[in-house]
Amino acid sequence: xKHRSKLLAAALLWILAAAAASILASxxxxxxxxxxxxxxxxxxxxxxxxxxxxADPVVDKSTDAASIEAEIARVLPLLLSDAGIRLRxxxxxxxxxxxxxxxEREYSSGWKTRRSTSVELWVREADGSAxxxxxAPPLAASxxxxxxxxxxxxxxxxxxxxxxxxxxxxxxxxxxxEPAP
Length: 181
What we know:
The protein is of the alpha/beta class and about 180 residues long. The chain has helices spanning about 1-30, 65-80, 155-175, and strands at about 35-40, 50-55, 60, 85-90, 95-110, 110-125, 140-150.
């Protein structure tokens, strides 16, 4: 009988240890705060200075969208300059047009409200058209996404997303776009 109770206790301990390990492993793989970055390009290799004209930024957020769009329009030229991309006036001699989209969505995670934010930078041929929805794919693009507690309303968070997206985009543009004549 004594042997049987020891065996039962050992089996119970083994089951509890396996359950605890399983719970810990599943919790460690479910990260609620993460960042994602990606970039794309198509086109020939460059041979000179890269320049873009900035399209009007678009923010998909229920509140504060106008002030966020204005902040993007003020901050992005500085980031482009740091990345070696010259900003030219729209309708001027820029060969490319930079389209900026920022999105924020809220979702529930248990009892907490979380935010998913992203910034997309798309480079297109500057053909004078302002309609982007049904046009050809971009020549180069970058996307930075974040999920957690931060909001696009936070200037520091918006700056970090724009800076990361601009660095990715600059690399893609340098690797595969023709510079302005």
